[in-house]
Design brief:
elongated, 43% helix, single chain
């Protein structure tokens, strides 16, 4: 069952349905954009084709797939999802917050340790 096809001579292109019948009933799970070209033996020898995108990648040339970065499973690479969803939009706010937090931590450490250092310096001067 072809949903939509365009035929030009020896080529046919269309969206072909993909069904899943593992549950006993056919369910449409997607469509494949497919182009088929029928060649004679001589034409096939003149226009060699590789498996998938392997060499020779011509007749027709297969471009790399145009997939969004978030199409991959986030469980396999959670840092990539963090980068795409959060880092690209909030990079400068995160860096500014981290620097402010670092300065506050160093200042708090200085205030916490300064009384002991001052006391030690005074005791060393007296003795």
């Amino acid at each position: 069952a072809v949903v939509s096809t365009q035929s030009t001579g020896k080529k046919i292109r269309g969206f072909w349905p993909v069904f899943d019948d593992s549950m006993g009933e056919q369910e449409l799970t997607g469509k494949v954009d497919l182009e088929i070209e029928i060649l004679t033996g001589e034409d096939a020898e003149e226009k060699p084709a590789g498996q998938g995108r392997n060499s020779p990648n011509q007749y027709p040339t297969l471009e790399p797939p145009n997939r969004p970065m978030t199409s991959f499973n986030f469980l396999f690479n959670p840092l990539k999802i963090f980068k795409i969803l959060i880092w690209d939009k909030l990079k400068w706010k995160i860096l500014t917050g981290f620097i402010i937090l670092l300065i506050v931590a160093l200042l708090a450490l200085f205030i916490y340790t300064s009384p002991g250092a001052i006391t030690t310096a005074i005791v060393n001067l007296i003795l």
